[in-house]
Amino acid sequence: MSVLRRLIIALALLGVIGAVAAWFLSAPRPLDAATLAGVPAGDVSRGERVFNAGGCSSCHARPGSPDEARLELAGGLELNTPFGVFVAPNISSHPQDGIGGWSFADLASAMKRGVSPDGSHYYPAFPYTSYARMDLADIADLHAYMQTLPAVAGAAPAHRLGFPFNIRRAMGLWKLLFLSEQPVAVIASATDQVARGRYLVEGPGHCGECHTPRNPIGGADKGRWLGGAPAAEGSGKVPNISPAHDFAAWSEADIANLLESGFTPEFDSVGGQMALVVKNMARLPAEDRAAIAAYLKAIPPVE
Fold this sequence. Notes:
The structure is a single chain. The protein is mostly helical and 303 residues long. The chain has helices spanning 3-25, 33-36, 44-54, 56-60, 104-113, 128-131, 136-146, 171-178, 192-202, 208-211, 252-261, 272-281, 286-298, and strands at residues 78-81, 84-87, 160-161, 229-230, 237-238. It folds into 2 domains: 1-175, no CATH class; 183-303, Cytochrome Bc1 Complex, Chain D, domain 2 (Orthogonal Bundle). It has 13 helices and 5 strands. Helix 5 (104-113) crosses helix 7, helix 9 (192-202) crosses helix 13 and helix 11 packs across helix 13. The mean pLDDT is 90.
């Protein structure tokens, strides 16, 4: 056997081994029964608080719908990204077109692992890289609350993605790099208030998904945490909300007031998707907005 032929065979074997390894490593991994065991039954009133902290209606209510329809989670919002157009799905309680047929285990695996009930990967336009840090009890409460919301018929349009981004299986390898339950910001001697703020911002609030820049393959650049990024709607820029530049002069009270009223210390008002976020944050208890403000003043500045 010639040296060239041996080399070709060796390369082919390495290719097969590599393909098998990639297939194994990219497999969807939902939460197992042991992890879910012992989680208390969800509470609807607590679930409403989680729903507002997560801003679910900001992405999943029909675009342009009036405020009284914010709980009709029909989806349809388009996110224009370098990888294609992602469309927020229907997550109403409709049993076929929404998630009304989902169990708590289904929702928990979707939010913490990015895995659908049928065992396929979700794209991280669904911010499971943040939700991975959530407590399972909060997800149980959210599940209980969302089952009480209106059932809306009609599935949202599909994502519009080109090759190779339409290969969902590849998301399994992406998750190995970027999906983690560990906190992002390292804060020495964090108070209980700051710790609560970190949980809200890094977990259900998923603030980093919009306010943190991304690397070329879509992973959050945690070295520039909350340092500002291009807007996911396709135009404009999401501001730097680390304690740097103009934001450094804001007090905790200024931040908490913006999250309730939508007004900056200069009496400008927020717009775009942030206006919808404020509508959700305004429904939280004042101590949650204060905790978010304390956290944002405690993290390292991104210049």
